[in-house]
UniProtKB/TrEMBL annotation:
Name listed for the protein in its UniProt record: ArsA-related P-loop ATPase
Pfam families reported for this sequence: ArsA_ATPase
Native source organism of the sequence: Streptomyces boetiae
Lineage, highest ranks first: Bacteria, Bacillati, Actinomycetota, Actinomycetes, Kitasatosporales
Domain of life: Bacteria
InterPro entries xref list: ArsA/GET3_ATPase-like, ATPase_ArsA/GET3, P-loop_NTPase
Domain ArsA/GET3 Anion-transporting ATPase-like intervals: 5-162
Length: 315
C-alpha cells in the first residue's frame, strides 16, 4: 500500500479535485492524511471552502473512519529558508537574505531549484516521525502535482541535482528524496478525460515516468457520463423516425426527425470513440478507475461523493 500519492493530469481534467477526493477517501479509511499543494493556486482551499492555506500544516477535514485530512500549501521561498536552516544553520541570516530579495531571486531564476524544494518538502513529510519518534507523522501524503506534461521532470529533478552535487548535504538530500520517490511507498496517479488529447498525454506521461524509473499508479478517468442504452441510428430513415414521433402524439414530427437523428448519430460516434479510448488506457497495463461527472460541479458535497467512490478501491 502506497504512502505517497502523487496526482497529476492534463489541465482541465480535474486533478486537484481528484487529489482532494483521494485524501478524503484515505481519511475515511481511518488514515491521517496530508494533502499538499505545490502550484500556489489555492485550489485545495477553494474545494474545502476554507480560507487560503498558509505555509503550515492545518487540519481541514475529519473522516467518519476517524482519519483526518491536513493540508499544506508549500511556498518555495519559505521552503528554501527551511532548507538553509536545516543544512547550514543560517537562522537570522536566512531571513535577511529574504528581506534583500535573494531568496525570491534564487527560486525565480532557477526553476529547477524550486522543484527541488517542493519535492523535498513533500518527501520530508513522508519520512517524518510522530511525537516521540513513534510511527509516522502521517499515514499517507497526497500531492496535487504539476500537469502531466512536466510531471516526470518535476519528480526526477533531484536525480540531476545528485549528479551535479556529488558530495555534501545537497547530494545526500537529493538522494534521500529520490529514494522515496522511486520506492514502493510512492505511486504517481494520472487523471484524464475520455478525450483524445488527455488520453494521449496520459500515455506519454506513463512512458516518461517509466523511463525515469518512477512508479506509475492508477489512471483515473474523471467526469464520465453513464452510457445511454439505445441502438446506433445510422441508416435509419428520417421518415421512419417521423412516423414513430407522430404515433407518440408529438407535433411537428417531420421537423423533429432530422435533428433527433443527427444527435443520435453524434452520440453513437462519441460512444464508439470513448470505447476506443478506454481500450487505449487499458493497454497501459495500470488500474483504471472511473469517476462520474458531478452535475452541480466540484463543490464540497461532490468532493465527498467522489471520496466514497475512491474509498472502496485499493490505493
Amino acid at each position: 500500500m502506497s504512502r505517497l500519492h502523487v496526482v497529476s493530469g492534463k489541465g482541465g481534467t480535474g486533478k486537484t479535485t481528484v487529489a482532494a477526493a483521494l485524501a478524503l477517501a484515505l481519511a475515511e479509511q481511518g488514515r491521517r492524511t496530508l494533502l499538499v499543494e505545490v502550484e500556489g493556486r489555492q485550489g485545495i482551499a477553494q474545494l474545502f471552502e476554507t480560507e487560503a492555506l498558509p505555509y503550515e500544516e492545518r487540519r481541514i477535514a475529519i473522516g467518519p473512519g476517524g482519519g483526518e485530512v491536513w493540508a499544506l500549501a508549500i511556498d518555495a521561498e519559505l521552503a528554501l529558508l527551511d532548507y538553509l536552516q536545516m543544512f547550514y544553520k543560517l537562522g537570522t541570516a536566512g531571513r535577511a537574505l529574504r528581506r534583500l530579495g535573494a531568496v525570491d531571486f534564487a527560486t525565480t531564476v532557477a526553476p529547477g531549484l524550486r522543484d527541488v524544494l517542493l519535492t523535498g518538502k513533500v518527501c520530508e513529510a513522508v519520512r517524518r516521525r510522530g511525537p516521540g519518534g513513534e510511527g509516522r507523522a502521517y499515514d499517507a501524503v497526497v500531492m496535487d502535482a504539476p500537469p502531466t506534461g512536466r510531471i516526470a521532470r518535476f519528480l526526477a529533478v533531484n536525480d540531476e541535482v545528485a549528479g551535479l552535487a556529488r558530495v555534501g548535504p545537497v547530494h545526500h538530500q537529493a538522494q534521500a528524496v529520490m529514494r522515496v520517490l522511486k520506492s514502493a511507498e510512492t505511486a504517481v496517479h494520472l487523471v484524464t478525460l475520455l478525450e483524445e488529447m488527455p488520453v494521449q498525454e496520459t500515455a506519454d506521461g506513463v512512458a516518461e515516468l517509466r523511463a525515469a524509473g518512477l512508479p506509475v499508479g492508477a489512471v483515473v478517468v474523471n467526469m464520465t457520463r453513464p452510457p445511454l442504452e439505445f441502438p446506433d441510428p445510422s441508416g435509419v430513415p428520417a421518415t421512419e423516425v417521423a412516423a414513430a414521433l407522430r404515433r407518440a402524439g408529438l407535433p411537428n414530427s417531420r421537423r423533429l426527425a432530422g435533428p433527433l437523428l443527427a444527435q443520435g448519430r453524434a452520440h453513437a460516434r462519441r460512444a464508439a470513440l470513448e470505447e476506443r479510448l478506454r481500450a487505449g488506457l487499458g493497454a497501459l497495463e495500470r488500474p483504471v478507475h472511473e469517476l462520474p461527472l458531478l452535475p452541480d460541479g466540484a463543490d464540497l458535497a461532490g468532493l465527498y461523493r467522489l471520496a466514497r467512490r475512491l474509498r472502496e478501491l485499493d490505493w
